[in-house]
Write a structure and sequence with these properties.
392 residues, alpha/beta, Aspartate Aminotransferase, domain 1, Aspartate Aminotransferase, domain 2, four-stranded antiparallel sheet, binds 4'-deoxy-4'-aminopyridoxal-5'-phosphate, transaminase activity
Length: 392
């Protein structure tokens, strides 16, 4: 999630001191700082040097549909999807974006019709990612308009259905649900990586979005990519990015390429002297330990409910495993109607269900992904030492 959409989230740290001098635990952010210690240990493996004369041109590859796409970045995207098995890249065009956020806007632009009398409807099944309605409507575009809950959508005319799988905020696997013709699908697979969910088959959709923000944790690089089947849609997405930012930072693409390369190397060379385990084994274990702490705390208190998931066979890890989302979709029990206010009373900041088109009995909180210095989650900081012990 983006830090800016909450009044309380201007600081980068999780435990922060408010104006009145009280310490609050901010679980509203989805900042993936939990991976920082892993990348520190990887050290030089992801270091790149960019001399001042390099990457000067606007252009990366004028023969490519996406002319600002760095070939090395495209190569590593294809390689990583093959190694992980989470997406088919053959027969797809790659469009790079300044985060998958920019690609979401590019996709709306590309899928809407310039000649339509009315804006195209944009829907998603609740609970949906809270940034979608805001991003869809903040420019009051004549091309597209948020139309809310996909389950009750029955307006004739063109529409787009957004499918986030695994879903932000509840972590469940999602499929398209609108049973109507004239629609296009955007699949946001930001979390379809083996540390969060079983990889059951390679995604092969018309338009799929991925991001380094959640896969490797490099949210600050602002790099995402789209896999697009239709050439015309890929061209129009490229046009949108040309019109809005004349391309995407080459420096960031080169850095992203290096990080993706290290992740793919870690998978292919797991068990070697270079990489004792793959990035996804380490991050999967980290998520398991954090979910265990969270479930223990929730069970002990008896005041909250968490989603229960069904295990599935993961082709990457080679065994059955439970989904373990980057966030917790927490429900207040015992008749508490406004879970966000309830937790706020304990100086814990979360995002209430209504932002996701759901009941205020729910909140989304991020106790899993960020590092919680000074917030009482000291056990989690111990991960750093265990990474070292395992020789990464
Ligand atoms: N989609 C989902 C489901 C997300 O949770 C996020 C980040 N919170 C994004 C997209 C945006 O990612 P990016 O940093 O690549 O813009």
């Amino acid at each position: 999630s983006t830090p800016s959409s909450s009044a309380s989230s201007s600081s980068a740290s999780v435990a922060e001191v408010e104006d009145g001098g009280e310490e609050v635990v901010n679980l509203d952010h989805g900042d993936p700082t939990m991976y920082e210690s892993y990348w520190q240990i990887m050290g030089e493996k992801t270091t790149i040097v960019i001399p001042g004369w390099q990457s000067i041109s606007y252009f990366s590859d004028i023969r490519s549909t996406c002319w600002f796409l760095e070939p090395e970045f495209a190569k590593q995207v294809v390689r990583l999807h093959k190694v992980v098995g989470n997406a088919e890249t053959e027969g797809h065009h790659i469009v790079v974006g300044t985060g998958s956020s920019q690609l979401y806007l590019a996709a709306l632009y590309a899928l809407s019709s310039k000649e339509a009398a009315e804006p195209m409807s944009v829907v998603s099944a609740a609970p949906y990612y809270s940034s979608y309605p805001l991003m869809t409507d903040y420019q009051k575009s004549g091309l597209h308009k948020w139309a809310g809950e996909a389950r009750s959508f029955n307006k004739p005319g063109p529409f787009v259905e957004l499918i986030t799988s695994p879903n932000n905020p509840d972590g469940f696997v999602r499929h398209s649900i609108v049973n109507q013709t004239g629609g296009a699908l955007i699949h946001d697979l930001a979390y379809y990586w083996p540390q969060y969910t079983p990889i059951t088959s390679p995604a092969d959709n018309d338009l799929t979005l991925f991001t380094v923000s959640k896969s490797t944790g490099h949210a600050g690089m602002r790099i995402g990519w789209a896999l697009v089947k239709d050439l015309e849609v890929a061209k129009r997405m490229t046009k949108f990015i040309e019109l809005s930012t004349i391309g995407v930072s080459k420096d960031s693409q080169l850095r992203a390429a290096k990080v993706l390369e290290a992740v793919a190397d870690s998978c292919e060379q797991a068990g070697s002297s270079e990489f004792s385990e793959s990035f996804f084994e380490v991050s999967y274990r980290l998520m398991t330990e954090r979910w265990q702490h969270l479930r223990d705390a929730v069970n002990t208190s008896g005041r909250f409910g968490l989603p229960e998931f069904t295990p599935a066979f993961c082709h990457f890890h080679g065994h059955n495993l439970q989904p373990q989302p980057a966030f917790a979709w927490l429900r207040c029990l015992n008749g508490v109607e406004d879970c966000e206010s309830f937790l706020r009373g304990f100086n814990i900041l979360t995002r209430g269900g209504k932002h996701f088109g759901a009941s205020p009995e729910y909140v989304r909180s991020y106790p899993v992904m960020a590092d919680h210095q000074n917030s009482g989650f000291h056990k989690w900081n111990g991960e750093r030492r265990s990474f070292n012990r395992r020789g990464h």
